[in-house]
Design goal:
Layout: H1 2-14, E1 31-42, H2 43-48, E2 56-62, H3 69-74, E3 75-86, E4 92-99, E5 105-113, E6 122-129, H4 132-138, E7 143-149, E8 159-170
């Protein structure tokens, strides 16, 4: 206990300095990870669809947090980390469409996930890294439309799931 007390006293005395600090060369790069989109679809749900077309499910979400002032001014990188599990006997196409407040498309991404094989689900993990122009465009996004489609009706067994995390990186210099 005495050694610990002596250590803290020496640390306190040794760390006192009367220098001026300049923040001119300071660069802050905070990074954030947030849960983004999560879906779980059964074979029957996807077969019935939720629009006029069968074998298609579409859902909408507001993503206006991308339009925050800090994002417009300091957002440097955006990436989406996506994990899928396809337990259906058909491939599933995923389509992400980001639209601005006037419903103009500002960013779109498509990916097809292979069907299950030998009654074992297909697992796929991928990352979507946006370039500087896409990062700038996505800050105008207000709505996200996610559509899941399959080419043919599945055999009514199994499910499909998708989880995603969005990574944000900022650059701030005073």
């Amino acid at each position: 206990m005495k050694r610990l007390l002596v250590f803290f006293l020496l640390l306190n005395v040794a760390c006192v300095d009367d220098r001026d600090v300049s923040l001119d060369d300071v660069v802050v790069n905070p990074e954030y990870r947030l849960n983004f989109v999560n879906f779980e679809l059964t074979a029957n749900t996807l077969n019935q669809g939720n629009l006029s077309e069968p074998d298609q499910i579409t859902d909408f979400a507001e993503v206006d947090f991308l339009r925050e002032d800090i994002n417009v001014d300091y957002l440097e990188t955006v990436s989406f980390e996506v994990a899928t599990q396809n337990g259906l006997d058909q491939p599933v196409n995923i389509n992400f469409q980001f639209a601005d407040i006037e419903e103009n498309l500002v960013y779109e991404f498509n990916r097809t996930i292979a069907a299950r094989s030998n009654d074992a689900p297909t697992y796929e993990t991928f990352t979507i890294d946006l370039n500087a122009q896409e990062v700038n465009a996505i800050t105008d996004a207000f709505d996200l439309q996610v559509t899941f489609t399959q080419p043919d009706e599945n055999d009514q067994s199994g499910s499909f799931s998708l989880t995603s995390i969005v990574h944000f990186s900022y650059r701030y210099t005073p």
